[in-house]
Design a protein that fits this description.
The chain has 419 residues and is of the alpha+beta class. 32% of the residues lie in helices and 24% in strands. It has helices at 17-35, 66-80, 105-112, 136-154, 206-224, 266-269, 278-281, 302-319, 356-366, 371-378, 409-415; strands at 5-12, 40-48, 51-59, 95-101, 120-127, 160-172, 178-190, 195-198, 201-204, 234-237, 251-256, 272-273, 325-332, 341-345. The strands form 4 sheets. It has a 5-stranded mixed sheet, with helices on one face. Helix 2 links the parallel strand 3 (51-59) and strand 4. Helix 1 (17-35) packs across helix 2, helix 4 packs across helix 5 (206-224) and helix 8 (302-319) packs across helix 10 (371-378). It is flat and about 65 Å long.
C-alpha cells in the first residue's frame, strides 16, 4: 500500500449470548475429559430467554446424566454472572434441556485408527505487532472485554452487566506497522441506575460513559500499547447520533453504547449459539479462517486441534525470526491421519533468503502433524478448554494454552541457518 490504512477487529465479553453457549459447551467437554481423557465430544448449546439447550454427540465413560449436565450448565451461567432473574436469564431459574447422544460409529472407525475426526482446512497466524505475536486490533479488543468483566466482578463498574462488545480500529503505515489507535467502540449492558431522560428519551448517562472511558478504556490501551498512548492524544466520546464531523488526527474517537441505551441484553436480548464467534475466537479477521468452530469439540476434531497447531507453528516461526508475519494452513480428510497439504505465506517478510517453500520443509521436519501427533505435542486430552471459550483462544500466555509456547523457535532458527 502507498498510504496509511485502517483495520478493525471486535471481541465480545464472557456474558455475550454466543460466548455463554461456547462456555457451556466447553464446560461439558472439560467434565468429560476430566473423567475420561479419550472422550469423543461434539457439544452444541443454545441459550435464550431463561432457557439453555445442550445437544450433540458424546461418547464417554464420564457419568454424564441429565442431573450432571443440569448442574454443569447452571454453575457455568452463575460463574459468568447471570444470577438476577429480573433480566430474563439466570442460573437458578432457567430451564435446562439435555439432548445428547453418542457419536456415529461411522466416524469412530476412522478416528480409532488415528485419522482426523473430520475433513477441512485450518489456519494459524502470527505477526510482530504485539508481544503475544497477535494482530494489534484483536489483541486490544480482547483486553477491553476481559477488563470489563474484571471491573464488573470487582464492583469498580457496578452498573454494568455481563453482556458487552468491544471494537478497535488501528491506523497502519504503508509498511504494515501500527502508528495509532483510531477508534474504540464499547457497548455494555447496564442497569437502570445510569439511565437518564432527555427530551422524553432514555439514554445511558454521560457520567457513566466518562467513567467507562476513565476506568476501562484508557487504562487498557495504556497498559497494552504505551508507545501509542503517550498522553498527547485526546479521547473524544462521540455523542449519540453525531455523524459527518471531521476530527483532528490526534483524537482517538470513542463510541460508548452508541445506540443510546443497552438495558436488555444477554440471552434474553439475543439468542446465543455455540460456534458463532469464530473470527473473535481467532485473529479478528486479520488471518484467514477455515470455517470450523472450536468450542465443544474434543481434540480428535481437527477443526480445533489443527487450528491450535497452526497457531503454534506460525508463532514459533515468527518468534524464531524466520518471518515478520506468517500464516499457516493445514488440511485433512476424515479418517486419514496425514495432512492433505501444508501451505505457508509470509507475505514477503521471510528473512535471510528463506522462501515459503523452504519454510514448509522446516515445518514437515519439526512438527508432528497427524491428529495423534498434534494431541501429544500440545497435550490436548486435558480439561483446559473452558477458559479458551472467552477472551480469545490465542494470544494469552497461560500455562494450559500449550499452543502459545515458542519452545521450537531456537531449533527452527538453527535449522534455517540463522544462528
Amino acid at each position: 500500500m502507498s498510504q496509511n490504512y485502517l483495520f478493525t477487529s471486535e471481541s465480545v465479553s464472557l456474558g455475550h449470548p454466543d460466548k455463554v453457549a461456547d462456555q457451556i459447551s466447553d464446560t461439558i467437554l472439560d467434565y468429560c475429559l476430566e473423567h475420561d481423557p479419550k472422550s469423543r465430544v461434539a457439544c452444541e448449546t443454545m441459550v435464550t430467554t431463561d432457557y439453555a439447550c445442550v445437544s450433540g454427540e458424546i461418547t464417554t465413560k464420564a457419568n454424564l446424566t441429565r442431573a450432571v449436565v443440569d448442574s454443569l450448565v447452571r454453575k457455568t451461567i452463575r460463574e459468568i454472572g447471570y444470577t438476577d432473574p429480573s433480566i430474563g436469564f439466570a442460573a437458578d431459574t432457567c430451564q435446562v434441556d439435555c439432548r445428547l447422544h453418542s457419536q456415529s460409529g461411522d466416524i469412530s472407525v476412522g478416528v480409532d485408527n488415528g485419522g482426523a475426526g473430520d475433513q477441512g482446512m485450518m489456519f494459524g497466524f502470527a505477526c510482530e505487532e504485539t508481544k503475544s505475536l497477535m494482530p494489534l486490533p484483536i489483541s486490544l479488543a480482547h483486553r477491553l472485554v476481559e477488563n470489563h468483566s474484571r471491573l464488573r466482578e470487582s464492583g469498580e463498574l457496578n452498573f454494568v452487566r455481563p453482556d458487552a462488545k468491544s471494537q478497535v480500529t488501528v491506523e497502519y503505515k504503508p509498511d504494515g506497522s501500527p502508528c495509532r489507535i483510531h477508534t474504540v467502540v464499547l457497548s455494555t449492558q447496564h442497569d437502570s441506575s445510569v439511565v437518564e431522560e432527555r427530551n422524553g428519551q432514555k439514554y445511558f448517562s454521560d457520567k457513566a460513559r466518562q467513567e467507562i472511558l476513565n476506568k476501562l478504556i484508557i487504562p487498557t490501551l495504556k497498559a497494552e500499547r504505551p508507545d501509542l498512548i503517550d498522553g498527547k492524544e485526546k479521547f473524544y466520546i462521540v455523542p449519540v447520533g453525531e455523524t459527518g464531523k471531521t476530527y483532528a488526527p490526534d483524537v482517538i474517537l470513542v463510541h460508548i453504547n452508541p445506540t443510546g441505551i443497552f438495558l436488555e441484553g444477554g440471552p434474553h436480548g439475543d439468542c446465543g449459539l455455540t460456534g458463532r464467534k469464530i473470527i473473535v475466537d481467532t485473529y479478528g479477521g486479520r488471518g484467514r479462517h477455515g470455517g470450523g468452530a472450536f468450542s465443544g469439540k474434543d481434540p480428535t476434531k481437527v477443526d480445533r486441534s489443527a487450528a491450535y497447531m497452526c497457531r503454534y507453528i506460525a508463532k514459533n516461526l515468527v518468534k524464531a525470526g524466520l518471518a515478520g508475519q506468517c500464516e499457516v494452513q493445514l488440511s485433512y480428510a476424515i479418517g486419514y491421519p496425514d495432512p492433505i497439504n501444508i501451505w505457508v505465506s509470509t507475505f514477503g517478510t521471510a528473512k535471510n533468503g528463506l522462501t515459503d517453500e523452504k519454510i514448509v520443509a522446516l515445518i514437515r521436519a519439526h512438527f508432528k502433524l497427524t491428529p495423534k501427533g498434534i494431541i501429544e505435542t500440545l497435550n490436548l486430552r486435558r480439561p483446559i478448554y473452558k477458559e479458551s471459550a472467552r477472551n480469545g483462544h490465542f494470544g494469552r500466555e497461560m500455562e494450559n494454552f500449550t499452543w502459545e509456547k515458542t519452545d521450537q523457535a531456537a531449533a527452527l532458527r538453527k535449522a534455517a541457518g540463522l544462528g
